[in-house]
């Protein structure tokens, strides 16, 4: 009985040792700015939606939902501060870079 368990444990360890790590991108998500932006933006959207649903529901007492909304807005400010500033990449230069058009 113990030899079967030992063989099974050795087989599991052998397979686990050679299996590729599929969760690698979640381990170093801080090194991937695009993934970090997506996770932060998704959390920001979820919190903002939660606040909107609480504010729109008239059946919930204001005394109950006011502290929840206050904490959620604090989380929104924290998440917005965590997002890097946008760097938009346009196919053409901005319209202010061209010469002005004068109509006579």
Keywords:
single chain, 104 residues, mainly alpha
How many strands, which pairing sense, and closed or not: the largest β-sheet?
none
Question: How many beta-strand elements?
Answer: 0
H and E order: HHHH
Question: Between the first and last Cα atoms, what is the distance in angstroms?
Answer: 98 Å
Average pLDDT across residues?
76
Structural class: mainly alpha
Which blocks of ≥5 consecutive residues have pLDDT under 50?
none
* Helical proportion, percent range: 55-70%
Radius of gyration: 26 Å
Overall form: flat
Structure description:
By secondary structure, the protein is mostly helical. The mean pLDDT is 76. Helix 3 packs antiparallel against helix 4 (62-82). It contains 4 helices and no strands. The longest helix is centred in the middle third of the chain and has 24 residues, at 33-56. It has helices spanning 2-18, 24-27, 33-56, 62-82. The N and C termini lie far apart (98 Å).
Summarize the structure.
This protein is mainly alpha-helical and 104 residues long.
Secondary structure: elements and pairs:
Blueprint: H1 2-18, H2 24-27, H3 33-56, H4 62-82
